[in-house]
Amino acid sequence: MRIGIDARPLAVQAAGVPRVVSSLVRELEKIDEANSYYLYSHREFSLPFRNPRWLKRIGWRVSRLPGIVWFLTEGRRAILEDNLDIFWSAMYIPHLALPPRVATILTVHDLEWRLYPQTMSLKTYYAHRLLVWPSVQKVDRIISDSESTARDLQRVLHFPESRIEVIHLGVDSAFRPQDRVKAAEYVAGKYGVSKDYVLAVGTVQPRKNLATLVKAWKILRDRAAPCCQLVVAGARGWKNTELDETIRRLGLTGDEIRFLGVVPEEDLPVLYSGSSVFVFPSLYEGFGLPLLEAMACGVPVIASNTSSVPEVVGDAALLVSPTEPEAFAEAILRVRSDDNLRRAKVEKGLSRAAGFNWSRAAAQLLDCMAHVVAAKHSSRPPTT
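Structure (tokenized):
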């Protein structure tokens, strides 16, 4: 097969979708010895390829324009020249750039734009309305990261189950248990945080529901609970005025809650490992990759009981309502004070995370591509 990949995520900040695409691409290069790959992006990306069958198609004439514009101009010309059999995107597919003969697969990570539009920036919301919806209607197959998102696709968008494939995400081998004391000392020295901290990871934006953690921290402080620090790692996102106001109103200080911003990817394993608890209060998730990473690092997890989260963590985490700060405060106290509970959740978390790996996910994606291409060819009228 001649496989095209939407490589735009690889050219932006390494979080969420970019990390998923990068992990799958690396594994595909390892396991696939037969097919040729063409990666299309309006900007250069650093991911190297040793295999000559992996080729970059990078914008150079209009690369300063948005990716969609590049796809419809220079990108389209490259796609036509490469004579693709199939094109896979983990963002959205600009169909005007793809000939009808090319099979298409779209990974849909979640349906935030339909279920929680109030948590999105206006720009992102309208981009999804204008671009994702047409893609969903026209693609040959949709891949979802979870059964939860697959159900949302059927329930909300009425997409047929027969055209959805669930492929769970994986966890990189870099995420493994480390000495907690040494890890905490490293984090304290580099980032200036307490050696005793509870960790949250994710873009600071309304869907991640950090306001619940902030309120839980106020509850813990008022109870004079054993002192530790809440550390949040992730880019500053959007619509955070309410969160900032909540922190000010509750009188919480930088000594109690620290926002680190974007953390280098190589520091994430040690950041997880040095924490006493990982907390994940998200209102809605299509998967929740940090959950896997935290469990793989041997950290007990407290998470919301919504959407895909129970599917990912099973019984390895304490699950509570994302709208109940009191429940999060109680769970944090329990995990930090009950050594037996802590050990049980760590052991279950390590076992649970071991069941997810990128190699299997890449193999499932490759198998899905082969089936979609075969189906596309079989549906074409015979040539004369």
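The longest strand covers residues 36-41. The two ends are 23 Å apart (CA to CA).
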